[in-house]
Amino acid sequence: MNPQNFIVTPDIYASKEKRFVNMIIDVIAYYVLSFIVGILFGILELIGITGILDYIATMGPLGNLIFGIIIVGSYFTVFEVLTQKTLGKLISKTMVVLEDGSKPTTKDVLIRTFSRFIPFEAFSFLGSEGRGWHDSISDTYVVDTAKFKAKVKAENELDLIGVSQED
After folding, report:
1. What are 78's strand-pairing partners?
2. 8 Cβ contact partners less than 8 Å away, ≥ 6 residues apart
3. Cα–Cα–Cα angle for 59, 65, 69, nearest 5°?
4. Which structural domain range is residue 78 located in?
5. Model pTM?
6. Which of 91, 144, 74 is nearest to 152 (CA)?
7. Per-residue confidence in pLDDT tens, the chain, 167 aa
8. Please, what is the Cα angle at 2 between 165 and 14, to 5 degrees?
9. Contact 108, 114 (CB under 8 A)
């Protein structure tokens, strides 16, 4: 694919329904991850590494908020940096790309992740294009994987028109 010729267009964006499914699945995944972290902390207490649960219990509201942001931020950042997908995107067959169809950088994903913490951001994807603030602020797009791959293939085939094939 020649990135100069490819551009993500609204016809390959993930639908609002898929975006909603992504959000629901990712919220469930966040709670499961939080539960697993809690179990791990409990196991650490059982094997003699004490104080972690006491510290968490005394953190207060601000500490709990920061702890939650760390877990949510880790979930989105790790998955999207490594695979361009979260569990929700994997199930709904969508993925995160840049405007030229390339994989977002770690910086792009971090901007995208921290933009999710803007109040009422979860409702921002309800606009006409279905792009949330975390998409527009980070200049990323959530696309339907099948439509994206079909468009990439079509672009590649167009690029080959007039190119001689040497056997």
Report:
1. none
2. 97, 98, 99, 100, 101, 141, 143, 148
3. 125
4. 15-94+105-141
5. 0.83
6. 144
7. 444 578 999 999 999 999 999 999 999 999 999 999 989 999 998 998 888 888 888 888 998 889 889 999 999 999 999 999 999 999 999 999 999 999 999 999 999 999 999 999 988 877 777 788 999 999 999 999 999 999 998 887 876 676 666 65
8. 125
9. no
Within-domain flag for 32: yes
Q: Is the dihedral of CA 108, 110, 114, 116 positive or negative?
A: positive
Coil, strand or helix at 97 = strand
Report whether 7 contacts 157 (CB < 8 A).
Answer: no
- The amino acid at residue 4 is Q
Residue 35 lies in a domain: yes
Q: Which amino acid is at 79?
A: F
